[in-house]
Structures are given as structure tokens and as C-alpha cells.
Amino acid sequence: MNVPLGWLLTFFDGEAGANGLSDRLSQGVAADGRDELDLEAAKAAKLVELLDGLGLSVERVFELPPAPDGVIVAEVVSVSPVEGSDHLLLAEVETGSGRVQVVTGAPNTEVGMRTALAQPGAVLPAVGLTVTTRELAGAQSRGVLCSPR
């Protein structure tokens, strides 16, 4: 099971909350000219040691890469079939600064879900795509709904 550190920290409250735990993990971790990434790795190693001491085995620790520029979280507010297509859907999504429509082929798209939206101009390095506004099956799409890949 993957456990985000932010979720794990919700189990610590008050002084021992996120800041308190971070302070505890920093104890005994000297800067010694290390950059911030080295310090975070040292804190993660200390957290693994603490969890192992509680009998909670940690198989591995990894950092998720940040989302590419232009990729945001959007909420699907409506979904309808694209006329003339047997598999495309037209989703209206709320971006936080307005609503846009996106054509998608993802059959699991449903109202209320939150998903990654690559806005026009975003570069998706995993698939080598620069997102543009385009027409698909006669419907205007102003972005791409992204899968976890």
C-alpha cells in the first residue's frame, strides 16, 4: 500500500502534528552542507526507522514527481456522450477559475470525480504531447483529462 506522508501526518495532532513531527525528524539530522533534498531523504530515513520500530514495515520510500506546468486538478460537473461517437464523452469541468469542456475517451469519467486536467499549452512529457484546444468528433475540447500514467 502507498501512504502519502501528508495523510500519515494527519494522525499527529497539536504540538506533535506535522510541524512537531518534522522537528523531531530533524533532530540528529545535521545539515553538514547538504542540500534540501539530502535533508528530506535523511528525515524520510528517520521516519522509516521510527515506523519500523513500531512494527510497521516500510517496503520503500519514493517521491512523486510534480505535475507538469499547466496540469491542475479539476472537478467533473457534467458528462454527456459526444453525438455521432460510440465512445467519446463531453465533460464539463470546474477548474477553480471557470468551467471548460473537454472531450475524453475515458469510460470511467463521472460527475463529481476530481482528476488531472492538462490545459492548453501544457506539455505532457510521458506521452510527448503539447496540449492544444482542438475539435474532436465535432466537439470543442479545451484540454486533456489525464490518467495516473
TrEMBL record:
<keyword id="KW-0820">tRNA-binding</keyword>
<dbReference type="InterPro" id="IPR012340">
    <property type="entry name" value="NA-bd_OB-fold"/>
</dbReference>
<dbReference type="GO" id="GO:0004826">
    <property type="term" value="F:phenylalanine-tRNA ligase activity"/>
</dbReference>
<dbReference type="InterPro" id="IPR002547">
    <property type="entry name" value="tRNA-bd_dom"/>
</dbReference>
<keyword id="KW-0436">Ligase</keyword>
<dbReference type="GO" id="GO:0000049">
    <property type="term" value="F:tRNA binding"/>
</dbReference>
<dbReference type="Pfam" id="PF01588">
    <property type="entry name" value="tRNA_bind"/>
</dbReference>
<keyword id="KW-0694">RNA-binding</keyword>
<keyword id="KW-0030">Aminoacyl-tRNA synthetase</keyword>
<feature type="domain" description="TRNA-binding">
    <location>
        <begin position="65"/>
        <end position="149"/>
    </location>
</feature>
<protein>
    <submittedName>
        <fullName>Phenylalanyl-tRNA synthetase beta chain</fullName>
        <ecNumber>6.1.1.20</ecNumber>
    </submittedName>
</protein>
